[in-house]
Design brief:
By secondary structure, the chain is an alpha/beta fold. It has 18 helices and 11 strands.
C-alpha cells in the first residue's frame, strides 16, 4: 500500500510539472490588457509618433524595437529610425511598409490614419501625456508592460522610473549640501494660447524644479495663470523660460522685467519639451538648471569622449540595405542574416570606422553595440568614436573571435550587424 501511495504521488508530481511547463511557455507575460486594448504578443517593430513616449522607450531600453518615428520625435538616440511624417497625420503607407506591428501615438493623431492602420492589423495606442508625477509613473509601467510583458515589463517600468527619481535626487542632495539649508526660489514661465503661464503646483515640471533644491514660487498655485503682483512679491532668485516668445513677454512687462533675476542675468531658456519629456531629456534639463544656478557644482573635468570638440558630421545619412561580405558570410550559420537594415545602414566592402570619426554611421554602430550589451550607457550613443566606443569594439572583437584592435574594420562591421553576432556576457 505504501508503494502504491508513493507511485500515485510521483505521478501527480509529474503531471503538475508538465502543466507548469506548458503554462510557463508564455510565463504569463502576454496577452497584456491596457484600458480597452489587448496586446496578444510582444511587439517587435514599433513606430513611435509621440515624443514623451519615445523618451520613456529610450529610458526603459525598448527603443531597440523602434523602426520608425514622427518628425517630432527628435531625440538623438532614435534619429537613425526613418521618419513617418508628422505626429498628427503620419504617412500610414510608410508605417505599413516598415512592418510595424504597434504604433504609439499622441492624443491628436488623425482618426483616418488610425483606422487605416487598424484595418491592416496594426495596433495604435493613443498615449495621454503625464502631466503629474503619478501619471508619468503610470505611463512608464503601462508602456513597459506593452513592450516587455505583464510582469517583467511592469517591473522594468517601475524600476526605471524609480532610478530616474534617484538620479534627480542626487542633484538635489548636491545642492542641499552646498547651500546648508538656505533655499533659493525659482519659477518657470511659458506661453500658451499667446498667454503667459507659470509652472504650477503638482505638475511634473514642478517636481523637476523641486529637484534643483530650490522652491517653486508657484508651489501654492494650482492655476497656471501668471499673477504679476505675486511674482513681484516672491521675486524669485532664478527664472527659467520656455522660448523667445516667453522672453519677449517677460521683457515687455515692466514688473517682470524688473525682477532681480531678470535684471541680474539669472534667467535661462529651458524648452517646454525639456521640461515635459519624462526620461533622459528632463534629467538633462535638471542638470542644465542646477549647473546654471550653481556653476561650482559642475564637474571640473570630463572624459576625453565628452570633452572632445565636435567634428564635421557632413557624412550623408545612410539608407537601409542588407549587408553582405563574402569572407564573413562564409563563417556565419545558414540561418544568420544582416540586421543592418534595421539601423538604416549600408555596409559596403570598403566601409570601416576608426577613432575620432563622427557621423551617422558611427552612431548606428554604437546603437548596435548598445543593443547587444557592449555599450552599457545609452548616453554614449553620440555619433563620435571616442575611447568608450573603442573599448566596446575591442570587447566585441574578443568575444567574436576577431583581432582586438578597437578599430571597426570592414570584417568587424559585417559581423557586428549580422544576426549571428555574439552578445556581451
Amino acid at each position: 500500500m505504501k508503494t502504491k501511495i508513493i507511485s500515485i504521488a510521483l505521478a501527480v508530481a509529474v503531471m503538475l510539472s508538465a502543466v507548469a511547463l506548458l503554462s510557463g511557455c508564455s510565463d504569463g507575460e502576454y496577452p497584456v490588457e491596457v484600458a480597452n486594448l489587448k496586446i496578444e504578443s510582444k511587439p517587435e517593430n514599433i513606430v513611435v509618433l509621440d515624443a514623451p513616449t519615445a523618451d520613456i522607450l529610450i529610458a526603459t531600453g525598448y527603443d531597440r524595437y523602434i523602426v520608425g518615428r514622427s518628425d517630432e520625435v527628435d531625440q538623438k538616440s532614435v534619429e537613425v529610425a526613418p521618419s513617418m511624417g508628422s505626429s498628427e497625420k503620419p504617412d500610414a503607407d510608410k508605417i505599413i511598409e516598415v512592418g510595424a506591428d504597434l504604433v504609439f501615438a499622441g492624443p491628436t493623431i488623425d482618426e483616418s490614419v488610425k483606422n487605416k492602420l487598424s484595418d491592416k492589423g496594426i495596433q495604435v495606442i493613443k498615449m495621454s501625456h503625464g502631466d503629474t508625477p503619478k501619471q508619468v509613473e503610470t505611463n512608464y509601467i503601462t508602456i513597459s508592460k506593452i513592450c516587455g510583458g505583464t510582469k517583467t515589463g511592469a517591473k522594468n517600468g517601475e524600476d526605471t522610473y524609480n532610478d530616474l527619481l534617484d538620479k534627480m535626487n542626487n542633484y538635489k542632495q548636491q545642492v542641499n549640501s552646498r547651500n546648508s539649508g538656505i533655499l533659493d526660489t525659482v519659477c518657470y514661465l511659458y506661453t500658451e494660447d499667446d498667454q503667459l503661464r507659470i509652472m504650477s503646483n503638482g505638475t511634473y515640471g514642478d517636481m523637476l524644479l523641486g529637484y534643483t533644491g530650490a522652491v517653486n514660487v508657484a508651489v501654492n498655485i494650482t492655476d497656471n495663470a501668471v499673477d504679476v503682483a505675486t511674482l513681484r512679491v516672491a521675486n524669485p532668485n532664478f527664472v527659467f523660460y520656455a522660448d523667445d516668445a516667453t522672453l519677449k513677454k517677460i521683457k515687455s512687462d515692466a514688473t517682470l522685467a524688473g525682477l532681480g533675476a531678470v535684471k541680474n542675468g539669472k534667467i535661462l531658456e529651458v524648452s517646454i519639451e525639456e521640461m515635459s519629456r519624462p526620461g533622459n531629456t528632463s534629467l538633462e534639463a535638471l542638470e542644465k538648471m542646477v549647473y546654471f544656478m550653481y556653476p561650482d557644482l559642475k564637474p571640473k573635468s570630463a572624459t576625453a569622449e565628452t570633452t572632445q570638440p565636435a567634428k564635421d558630421s557632413s557624412a550623408s545619412k545612410t539608407t537601409a540595405t542588407t549587408a553582405t561580405t563574402a569572407t564573413q558570410a562564409a563563417t556565419a550559420a545558414n540561418s544568420s542574416k544582416s540586421v543592418a537594415d534595421k539601423y538604416k545602414l549600408t555596409i559596403t566592402s570598403d566601409l570601416s570606422l576608426k577613432q575620432e570619426d563622427e557621423n551617422d554611421t558611427v552612431k548606428a554602430m554604437q546603437l548596435r553595440l548598445y543593443n547587444i550589451g557592449y555599450i552599457s550607457d545609452k548616453d554614449n550613443v553620440t555619433g563620435y568614436y571616442g575611447e568608450v566606443t573603442a573599448e566596446a569594439v575591442k570587447k566585441f572583437q574578443k568575444r567574436n573571435g576577431l583581432k582586438e584592435t578597437g578599430t571597426a574594420d570592414n570584417a568587424t562591421l559585417v559581423l557586428l550587424f549580422d544576426s549571428s553576432a555574439k552578445k556581451a556576457k
